[in-house]
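Forwarding the complex inputs:
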Amino acid sequence: MVRAGLTAERLARAGAELADEVGFDRVTVSELARRFDVKVASLYSHIRNSHELKTRIALLALEELADRAADALAGRAGKDALVALADVYRDYAREHPGRYAAAQYRLGPEDAAGSAGVRHAQMTRALLRGYDLTEPDQTHAVRLLGSVFHGYVSIEMGGGFSHSAPDSQETWSRILDALDALLRTWPSS
Amino acid sequence: MVRAGLTAERLARAGAELADEVGFDRVTVSELARRFDVKVASLYSHIRNSHELKTRIALLALEELADRAADALAGRAGKDALVALADVYRDYAREHPGRYAAAQYRLGPEDAAGSAGVRHAQMTRALLRGYDLTEPDQTHAVRLLGSVFHGYVSIEMGGGFSHSAPDSQETWSRILDALDALLRTWPSS
DNA sequence: CCATTTGCCTAAAGGCTTTAGGCTGGCGCA
DNA sequence: TGCGCCAGCCTAAAGCCTTTAGGCAAATGG
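Prediction (whole assembly, four chains):
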């Protein structure tokens, strides 16, 4: 009997693909076993349980996203950087809806600390160096940007903007214009 | 044998309470049956399936949220109204995390059209009358506010802001200040 | 070359969803 | 008041998912 060569890593990668195909919430240990043409119980030698599988997929997505963000930010500053970073999130969500959903999976403090989530915050901070903000406003701005990016993308993915004019791309551009303007004239306390 | 007096309505209400207690994703037809001290199959005379149950809970939450928003907006304008509306979302999410999650449940176009989602958009539009925006900027602004509110609240609920200074309330206030300033000086195309 | 570890399998228990079909308490009508 | 009918709950059963326990065989390394 030929062995399938399972690994926690490979399972997570396959799980990420599965998520993009059928949705993160339908990623199931059983379905994954089917894909590897292996019995379900076999997966439990590699992952503790379903939660660990999802966590690994989430961590993987966060890494990928952070890598893309780092790439996009390289050599850019100011509004250029703002738009680039924003597009990274939006594009990733469109290309990999399942992974994007996974990135929202709630992690325990343990996993969260070791995740790429930290890098995300740092990069947003780096981006803000192109604007003139000092603490604590910088932190407020980091949180605002995170909220807008995630909020917009998740509403858009949910179809929230698809049944009314103007089209979503137009709004996205105008929102980024507005955020840029806001960051340049941030109202200090 | 005394009848339990089940109803799609009562099931949805009980489901909403259950969601707040254990989380929306753990709302289950089985658990609900247990709460009514009734066999699982009995519920299927009132709801078509699990999806319909969740949809009804979502619609209920959207309704409640819209009612609160309408209340909060009454007699207010400008920044006052902005803060009031924003707090409605945030407070609702804190008081009723399960219902808030339910409100994010993806509805079919059918249900979406008949939902209170429409009222939400209209109220945000009404709020913007306190600022000087005309179409299509008004729509862009509606979408921005929706993104910020939803994005911030969902990150906050996920614990995203809880492990770093400054505290979340402070950021929330400053973000609302910033949005107010932005709306007053919205960069026209 | 064989001993041990590692990887996948069978078996089984327990939970959730959904459908089919049966019994009965009550409401409506005569 | 009495009776029939139907709505409302039940039992049964199938199908899928998770998770644990224990077994056999393929790799690995001494």
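Residues 50-73 of chain A form the longest helix (24 residues).
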